[in-house]
Amino acid sequence: MARPRLIAAASAGLAACALVFQLGLGAQAPDIEQHINALIARMTLDEKFGQLQQLDGHADGRNREEHFDLVRKGLLGSTLNVRGAENVNALQKAALEESRLKIPVVFAFDVIHGYRTVFPIPLGETASWDPEAAERAAAIAAAESRAAGLQWTFAPMVDIARDARWGRIAEGAGEDPWLGSVFAAARVRGFQGTNMAAPDRIAATAKHWVAYGAAEGGRDYAATDMSEHALRSIYFPPFKAAVDAGVATFMSAFNDLNGVPTSSNPFTLTTVLREEWKWDGLVVSDYKSVVETINHGLARDEADAARQALPAGVDMEMISRTYVTHGPALVKAGEIPVPVVDEAVRRALRLKYRVGLFDRPYADPALEPATLLKPEFRAAARDIAARSMVLLEHDGRTLPIKEGNRRIALVGPFGDNRDEMMGNWTGDGRREDVVTLKEGLEAALPGAQVTVARGADLDVKMLWPGGAGDAAGAAALRDEAVAAAREADLVVLTLGESGAMSGEAASRTSLDLPPFQRELAEAIFALKKPTAVVLFTGRPLALGWLKAAAPAMLLAWFPGTEAGHAVADVLTGRVNPQGKLPVTFPRHVGQVPIYYSHKATGRPPAADDKYTSKYIDAEWTPLYPFGYGLSYTTFELSDLRVSAASIPSTGSVTVSATVRNAGAVKGTEVVQFYVRDVAASVTRPVQELRGFTRVTLEPGESRRVEFTAGPKELGFLDRDLKWRVEPGEFRVRVSQSSEGGLTGAFEVR
Ligand code: NOJ
Q1: Is the minimum distance from the CB of 207 to ligand 1 under 6 angstroms?
Q2: DSSP readout, 597-634?
Q3: Residue 287 Cβ contacting ligand 1 at under 6 Å
Q4: With contact defined as beta carbons under 8 Å apart, do 576 and 554 qualify?
Q5: 112: CB partners within 8 A, 6+ apart
Q6: Across-strand partners of 453?
Q7: Is ligand 1 within 6 A of the CB of residue 319?
Q8: Which of 310, 234, 224 has its CA nearest to residue 260?
Q9: Which of 60, 137, 309, 434 is the least buried, fewest Cβ under 10 Å from its Cβ?
Q10: pTM for the whole structure
Q11: Residue having the nearest C-alpha atom to atom 7 of ligand 1
């Protein structure tokens, strides 16, 4: 593997490769680790800490002047945000031609759901329950990123999130460790491929390590306190799946975890990652999260922050500069052992080797325009966005839009809104590339006349008490929308949050629609016209009134560049909706955290028994359960079979059922498989997802689906945190969501 790498480097004639020969390593068995060690042996302490520093360029991708100077001195190993072949090559040239050791810079960026071609937000993409789609989206994002000079993305975010108030729920795969693990692995494979040095792949980051999604009160950056059992059972699995998929890097998180901030936590960063999982990748801190250990009340000052974080296992420091500033003195004073520094540097250099920087440090400027936003990338974005949409309500009449609907009123703040289709973290996505819903509907229905009325304003400032502004202005917008709707055969009513209302630093205390949208919706529904709601959001919203009133409702999340086409594809039935919720939708914000795999309680809720686990002012059940999603057809499940009545703890059973398309159009159903361990030495959740499969069926067609339940599906961590399958009764469910379906049982003996 390393031999062609050296030859390539030599033929490129780059300064970096000359180093390999200077080091006398020759072309025989040029083991990467040997190169790294030889390089480390030549580094000064300052240069070592320089490799552990990451700083950000300008938000628009340009370099900061200071970085050239730092790179020349060997004091900067990596940047974030710098992108575009020209910008990247300019800084790289300084590293390769003007620094003593000629170590290339590694360029990182938040490519979260696409670089230039923007895909649905990750929560939405997960609603496809189609890991192959997520892998494809990540692979395209990787190809575009590489072409723009990047080698590293800070994605996927694999934090389990069960609190819809937390804005970053939009960035992950939702509430479930099993589904989250499947998508974590798929996204890592998509970004990295089998060789992250390939010209169309980049290194991925599993973030945020760890339990950041469990922040108290759903408040971003807040502390997390939980049992080690819960950590290992719920929050670790997607990270472990990323490790097993070969993820190159981890990002330590912002949150305090059980009293020790995660960006200075030896248990999570070293005991688990290095000693238990034997992982040899790089850990980068989150943005200033090392220096923030002072605010947490762990470190006394900046030197103390570095003294604790580096040995704890944070290899590279993002933005704050405690390592470069205090590291050398701390080493000289014996406060940080040299082998600890060397190991962190080794990981940083290993990443640079793995992404191929020692062979191909420069970006090819011709590749960038030829790669970005290729027609096939747009086609994939359209397809994946349509797969991500969830049909929440369907009266069987309103949707799909029929040919006869010639006059369509497109009412609400998203109808002709180029800025609000991509959601948060839009990479290098450009508004001018975006297809609006108006454009999508007009293209899909050339015979129709689409009239747009905004209906309500949409601005994140409106959420703040008193920020909603002028009620008279809102009433005028509403009246205009009602007038447009009155003239129409069909109303498409767009509602929801703006992109800025979810994502980082966008926690909410309410899960309601922004101001004036409910009034708008009620005025439209009062017309009794056929009305289809299209909901845009980065988080579950608590919309019981809307569920009761909407004849049809499609959850579109934030679909990305091809938004308008993808929504139109689903509204017109060109694509039959097939998405399923990867997260529970509550009835009320007061129910959070609400998730399908909760523990049972000694007093399960019962309507006729006051002293059971419920509320006196609201139902205990969700508005829409995990796994829920409708289709323009209907599916029926029948004939559940469990292959054995009893198995040994090392054995497995096959659980199968027939799924039939009982409707009139072709459709895709996600058949889900849940398990419950009825009595165990550590109580188990009421059910846990342990498999799913997507089945596409013609009308009247049926197929058997099969799931396996063996040690991986049936085991859990016991009181000693050891994985085991315990004897006793297991119940299984094969279903179309986490509710209903077919049930069966078997024994483990
Ligand atoms: C802070 C965010 O928490 C993290 O996810 C992101 O990668 C960094 N900023 C860099 O932008």
Answers
A1: yes
A2: T----SS---TT-TTSSS-SSS-SS-SB-TT--B-SS-
A3: yes
A4: no
A5: 121, 122, 153, 154, 155, 157, 171, 424, 425, 427
A6: 411
A7: no
A8: 224
A9: 60
A10: 0.96
A11: 154
Residue 609 CA, ligand 1 centroid: distance in Å: 47
CATH code 2.60.40.10 region(s) in the chain: 635-748
Whether the CB of 47 sits within 6 Å of ligand 1: no
Mutation to probe ligand 1, out of 83, 110, 220, 255 (largest number of atoms < 8 A from CB): 110
CA of 424 to the centre of ligand 1 (A): 12
Say how many Å lie between the CA of residue 289 and the centre of ligand 1: 10
Return the half-sphere exposure (C-beta side, CA atoms, 13 A cut-off) of residue 212: 27
342 is catalytic: no
Supply the pLDDT for residue 209.
Answer: 98
Six token digits for residue 186: 């798929």
Residue intervals in the chain for CATH 3.40.50.1700 = 381-591
Rounded Cα distance between 238 and 208, Å, is: 11
pLDDT in tens, 141-180: 999 999 999 999 999 999 999 999 999 999 999 999 999 9
Tell how far the Cα of 274 is from the centroid of ligand 1, in angstroms: 23
Any idea which fold 381-591 has?
A: Rossmann fold (3.40.50)
Is any atom of ligand 1 closer than 6 Å to the C-beta of 110?
yes
Residue 259 pLDDT? 98
Tell how far the Cα of 489 is from the centroid of ligand 1, in angstroms: 46
pLDDT tens profile 169-210: 999 999 999 999 999 999 999 999 999 999 999 999 999 999
**Which superfamily does 635-748 belong to?**
Immunoglobulins (2.60.40.10)
Of ligand 1's listed atoms, the one at least distance from the Cα of 81 is: 11
In a 3-state reduction of DSSP, which class is residue 641? strand
Average pLDDT over residues 211-224: 98
> From the candidates 130, 163, 176, 286, which is the catalytic residue?
286
Confidence of residue 30 (pLDDT cuts 50, 70, 90): low
